[in-house]
Design a protein that fits this description.
By secondary structure, this protein is of the alpha+beta class. The protein contains five helices and seven strands. The radius of gyration is 20 Å and the shape is elongated.
Amino acid sequence: MTYRAWNKGLKGVSGRPRVPSEDRFWARVKKTKSCWLFNGHRQAKMGYVQFWTPEHGHIYAHRYSWLFHHGKIPENKLILHSCDVTNCIRPDHLWIGTQLDNMRDMIVKGRKVVRYGQANGMWGKKSKGFTGRKHTTAARRLMSRALKGNTRYADHHKNQRPS
């Protein structure tokens, strides 16, 4: 018998009744005026917080929140934050999208930074070096369209897939 199969019983290792995953999850949530912040194990590289359940194993807290409030996550889809707070689990701050939606959202919000140099893969290529500009021309064009309201990604926070 594997550890996971053994541990799925109604009682924990100590013999006490197991606390349901939902109760353990909500005990770690701090609701503020804008975001619901989950206090848990923060992943070092990306900064997302994780939660463990017998049903799902280790799962990101925002994905568990989506499962709890909306149900199943479609295959090859991501749960994205409209507030850009990695430990936020508030359902109306989460939306479903693809990796392309995530990259476009990053560009529109001005979080994409172009860096030049040996450490960033631009060594040996024709490069002007640092030009003082934070964004690429394509990123500035996309942000300009978004500010004018001519972007199809303006309503991403309403859980709508771009057409």
